[in-house]
Each structure stands twice: as structure tokens, then as C-alpha cells.
Amino acid sequence: MNTQPLILVAEDEDLMRVILSGLLEGAGYRVALTASAEEALEKFTTEDVAVTLTDIRMAGMDGLALLDRIKDIDAEALVVVMTAYSSVDSAVAALRKGAYDYVTKPFVNEDLLQSVKNALTQRELFRENRALRRELDRRYSFSEIVGTSEALQSVFRLVEKVAATTTNVLVEGESGTGKELIARAIHHNSPRASRPFVAINCGALPETLLESELFGHTKGAFTGATANRQGLLRSAEGGTVFLDEIGEITPAMQVRLLRAVQEHEVTPVGAGGAVSFDARIICATNRDLEKEVSEGRFREDLFYRLNVIEIHLPPLRERREDIPLLVRHFIAATAREQGQPEKPISREAMTALINYKFPGNVRELQNAVERAFTLSGAEIDLDSLPPRVWESAGDPAAVRDPDGLRPTLAEIERRYIFETLASVNQDKARAANVLGIDLSTLYRKLKRYDAD
User: Fold this and answer.
1) Are residues 339 and 299 both part of a single domain?
2) What is the pLDDT of residues 47-95, one digit of tens each?
3) Domain ends where: 131, 161, 192?
4) Residue 90 belongs to a domain with what CATH number?
5) Whole-number Å distance between alpha carbons of 87 and 105
6) 332 contact partners, CB below 8 Å, separation of at least 6
7) Burial, 335: exposed, middle or buried (Cβ in 10 Å; 0-12, 13-18, 19+)?
8) I need a labelling partner for 259 at 20 to 30 A (CA). Which of 47, 123, 195, 321 fits?
């Protein structure tokens, strides 16, 4: 059985089909030749096509219409278009519709073969991303955790280790980094997965209401308490309680929570005695709790009770290589929510997103992509991004530093490196090859940029 990739050719000129067949088969590919877009579309639906190579100008359905139909079937399909007519306009139209690349007739054989080879590399990246997502779903039972960076992978490895235990966990990280997602991943991968997962934002409630929500109350304990309430710690019996923004609770509440954590029992508001509970406690904070302890704002004994295992979530600016994967994830999610087909994103827009520091982290990125998807046309471009994103990117043709002068060589180098990474989907080995530097040199430069 021939396992070489299948290249589908749609070309209505007999001689050109012969030329393309010889060229592609000579390069080791399998080739399916069709003389019309209609025939090519039928072949695409019945064969495992790796790359489609189509002429734009054909009798009947033209190449752009074929591109639309193929993309309707498979949004990740890779199509290279050939044109000898108004090459720039035709190519731009094709790229906006989702074509991977274009070549103009008469083409240079090596250029066409390189375009096909690049498309096949992109196909492998799509497959690897899908495989990774399936693995993440299988391992963590929570598909919103997206990323391949080493920083995030180290978090995943720690999640695997602590999930099987009953140890209390403290998840630290800036707002928007996904602390609740990690808490849910720990729960869903633990022996407690079939029991409740209960979450509460401690910073969103006043002390009296938070006490009642956590520990419960008896009927008549206070105005409005018309029935007994068992509280979240008891309602999560056998499961997990997630206390978000734990650094916001008052000193008095810290004392009550310390006793609950130590004794695994609570005293409902208005009750005369304590009631035991069995729930794992996972807390999260965007504060530096050690600093809060040293400055007397958080109890040291409670800190050590909660911080048996610490998981630090890196901010998005420290794992920029995850941004393209997250962007495509959020594009797909937004398309599903709005009942629309997915849209491609321009290189300039992706580069701007990679370069932006995202103080709001993954949550801010998600909002930016949703906004851009909603406001853009056929393609998500730079103008559809929030102003703070594209303003920070600057004009690639006339970049200036904050003083209005020409950029430094270091700034030009930094921008060029990030644009190159974006163009190769964050493949650092490929980027180093394109840049003409060693992979170790590239890693050193990226580390320096993050430090800056």
C-alpha cells in the first residue's frame, strides 16, 4: 500500500495536468488528476487528500469556488492555488478565502514543490495539535486547558502527581491565568471525580455572607434564614471545594477557616455544635501570600495548612509559544457559539497577539479573539483586534520607539524573530533555520526578551 501523501490536482488544461503529474510523482507523491473543479470536489470527498492544487481559472466552477466548497467540508484543508491571471488580485482573494499559498504561471518547479512541501508540514502540525488536544481531554477531562509550552507541561505533570492524593493545594497566578481550570483538572483526574466540585469566589462576598455560604446556617440564625443550609464545605461531601481569591478573606474568617481545615468540621451559623465534613480543599490567589504573611495580613498557620502543595501558573507573556494554539482554539469556540464557519487570521494580527504582553492573560486573549472574530470580515486582521493590542504592535512599516526615533537594532531583531516564529507556528527549530542561527542562540534570545 502506497502511504505517500495524496496531492489532488484540479486543472482543465491537458498539457498542464501532464506536467504537474510528472513533477509531483517525480517528487514521490501520489497524484489524483482531475479536469474540472466539480470532478476535484467529488474526489476530495472520497479520498484522503493531503493537499489540493487547483487552477483558479477553469470552465464551470472556478478554483475560488472550489476552495470555498473544500473549506466548507474541512476548515483545515490545505489548498494551493495556481493563477496566470491578475496574479496579485487573484492570490489575495484566494488567501482571504483560506488558501494556504499560491503560485503564478509559468511557475518555477522548485517553488511549486516547496509550496506543496510547506503545506504538508502544516498538515502535520494540524494533526499533532489535534492529537495533543485529544490527549489533554483524555488526561485532564477539561478541554479548555490549551498549551504545549514547557512551562504549562510542568504544571500538567504536577497536576498528575497531586490529583491522586487528598493533599490541600494552593494555586497561585495572576488574574486570568486559569486557576479554576487547574483546580477542576485536579478534581476530574482524582478519585473524587464522581463527587461534587464546588467553587466560590471568597473576594466577592462580605464576611457574614461568606461564613454562611461556607459553613451553613440554621433556620432563624439571622434575618432571612428561613431554612437550614448545610454550606458548601458539607455540600461537597466526598468531592472538592475550590476557594478562589483566598487572600481576600478577613482575619476573623481566617480563624474560622483554619479550624475547619484542621479539624475537618464546621459549625453552622446559629448551631450549637460542630459537624464533620470530608472534602478536599483547593485554594487560589493572585496575591503573594508569603508577603501577606510577613506583613501580618494573612495567618501563617493557615497559609501552611493550605499551601501543602503549591502550583504556580505562569502568565501568558511567559509562554508566548502557546498563543497561536490558544488563538485557534478560541476562534473555533467563537465560531461554534455564533454558528459561523471559522475564519483565518492574518500574519500581522497573529504577530501582534504574540508580541502583546496580555496583562489580563488567557482571559484577555479570549476576549480579544472573540471581539476580533465578531468585528472582522472574511479574515481576522489587525484592525479587528482591540486598539490596545494593535497599538502596541505599531506599524510594521514605520516602527518607532517611545521617543519617536527609529527603532534600535535590538528592537528590529526582536520583532523579526517573533514574526518568524509566528510564520512557522512557533516551531523554534524551523524558526532558527529560517533566521540562520543555532537553536540554542534562539532560546537565549527569547529568554532575554522575556526578562526584559
Assistant:
1) no
2) 989 999 999 989 889 999 999 999 888 888 999 999 875 566 777 788 8
3) 131
4) 3.40.50.2300
5) 9
6) 342
7) middle
8) 195
Based on the structure, what is the number of domains in the chain? 3
Domain end (from 264, 293, 314): 314
Length of the chain: 452
> In this predicted model, what pLDDT tens digit does every residue of 12-24 receive, in sequence order?
999 999 999 999 9
Is the CB of residue 15 less than 8 Å from the CB of residue 21?
Answer: no
Peptide bond into 341 cis (omega under 30): no
pLDDT in tens, 94-112: 888 888 988 888 888 998 9
Note the pLDDT of residue 141: 47
Give the residue among 332, 317, 211 at the shortest CA–CA distance from 268.
211
* Same domain, residue pair 14 and 83: yes
Q: Let me know if residue 143 belongs to a domain.
A: no
Of 213-217, 375-379, 407-411, where does mean pLDDT reach its minimum?
407-411
The values of phi and psi at residue 200, to 5°, are: -145, 140
- DSSP annotation of 246: G
Question: Measured between alpha carbons, how far is 111 from 165 in angstroms, rounded to an integer?
Answer: 56
Supply φ then ψ for residue 164, to 5 degrees: -80, -5
